[in-house]
Amino acid sequence: MTGSEKRGKVNRAAAELREIECFVLDMDGTINLGENLIPGAKEYIEYMQKNGISFYFFTNNSSKAPEDYVKKLERLGFSGMTRGNIMTSGDVMIHYLRTHGGQRIYLAGTPELEAQFQEAGFTLLPHDTQTADFAVLGFDKTFNFEKADTISRLITAGVPFLATNIDRVCPLEDGKFCPDCGSMACMITHATGIEPKFVGKPFKETVDYILAKTGSPREKTAMVGDRLYTDVKTAVNGGIVGIAVLSGEISYQDIEEGDVAPDYILDSVYDIYTAIK
């Protein structure tokens, strides 16, 4: 490819990125690495705030309250963040339940997720309940035998089994991890023989929720992230624009060897900033 061809390709990509009306962003590896901002992330977010471009942060972690992520963003140095800027797999589950007629829910989740469901108007059932519209499993750091017994009993009796996110582990500091919702679901499946329906990234239900919340056209909505099989696959499954950044987990070689193709491959979100400003 000649120099002029490369410049033409870059210019076309920049023009196309300027057409995006809504950016949905992964956080760790995309905006920050731990407690450190990725270079250019602050300029990118501040530009979108100043120019009225819609942006949201999406996390598959359903164990925390969305307000916890607002506080984290403030701690990272962003100002003007609100609950409205945060999307979680818990939000996706709530949207799914609303569109599928579920009201009486047995929920195995953290107190934070329980509060989120109650604020949304759902009736959460006790452990001795004999029936429910849905049995829902979240990334539950308060999971115990009583919850496992109740949800297994309900699922075996025919109550539909849902789970917020498919992640096997949740990464912690210093390379450590803890079991996430996907691993907890495996235990319930092993006991009941029934697999759950997952709704967070990378499933289409996540994009259904994003489009319903934002009102943004599908072709002008982008998912930005550093993971091929969550962030980029979400975009592919939901038919929105997929932007892979190489500032976190994936490399260019991973993308070349993988079977999920992003629409754009950028070094970091700073490249989006330079393209749209």
From TrEMBL:
Cofactor: Mg(2+)
Cofactor binding note: Divalent metal ions. Mg(2+) is the most effective.
Keyword Magnesium in annotation: yes
Active-site residues, Swiss-Prot/TrEMBL: 26, 28
InterPro entries named in the record: HAD-like_sf (IPR036412), HAD-SF_hydro_IIA (IPR006357), HAD_sf (IPR023214)
Keyword Hydrolase: yes
EC number: 3.1.3.-
GO cellular component: cytoplasm
Residues that bind Mg(2+): 26, 28, 226
Keywords: Hydrolase, Magnesium, Metal-binding
The protein's role, per its UniProt record: Catalyzes the dephosphorylation of 2-6 carbon acid sugars in vitro.
Entry's family note: Belongs to the HAD-like hydrolase superfamily. NagD family.
Protein name, UniProt field: Acid sugar phosphatase
